[in-house]
Specification:
The chain has helices spanning about 20-25, 30-40, 55-65, 70-85, 85-100, 100-115; strands at about 5, 15-20, 40-45, 50-55. By secondary structure, it is α+β, with helices and mostly antiparallel strands. It folds into two domains: about 5-65, YefM-like fold (3-Layer(aba) Sandwich); about 65-115, no CATH class. About 5% of the residues are buried. The model has no long low-confidence stretch (mean pLDDT about 90).
Length: about 120
């Protein structure tokens, strides 16, 4: 079998074994076990990947990592909004809106230098 690479649930870059669709059909049990133990197997047709058989652990990892829950995003947004409501933040925003293009340019250059 040829091997492709993918990032597993631990974040490691590992080889993803491939198997032809005809062999997958004929040796389903053995290939199923290989995917269950190894994480995943790519199924090819005419040497082009067409599907991936994932272990349940890899599937769960993908589903959980897909995106944060709406409640988590709401809490994050509320926290950011609260930080923006301080007198210092309000003064900073007012100064930014009142700044000239030259002042904004200088501030951007200063911030870029500080990040280095």
């Amino acid at each position: 079998m040829r091997a492709m690479t993918f990032r597993n649930r631990q974040g490691e870059l590992v080889d993803l074994p491939t198997v032809a669709a005809s062999r997958f059909k004929n040796e389903f049990g053995a290939i199923f076990e290989q995917a269950a133990l190894g994480g995943a197997v790519a199924i090819t047709k005419h040497d082009a990947p067409k599907a991936v058989l994932l272990s349940y652990a890899e599937f769960e990892s993908l589903v959980q990592a897909r995106s944060p829950a709406l409640d988590d995003l709401t809490l994050q947004f509320d926290g950011l909004l609260e930080q923006m409501q301080t007198p210092k933040s309000k003064a900073g925003m007012a100064a930014a809106f009142d700044a000239s293009p030259v002042q904004l340019g200088r501030a951007a250059v200063k911030a870029a230098k500080q990040r280095r």
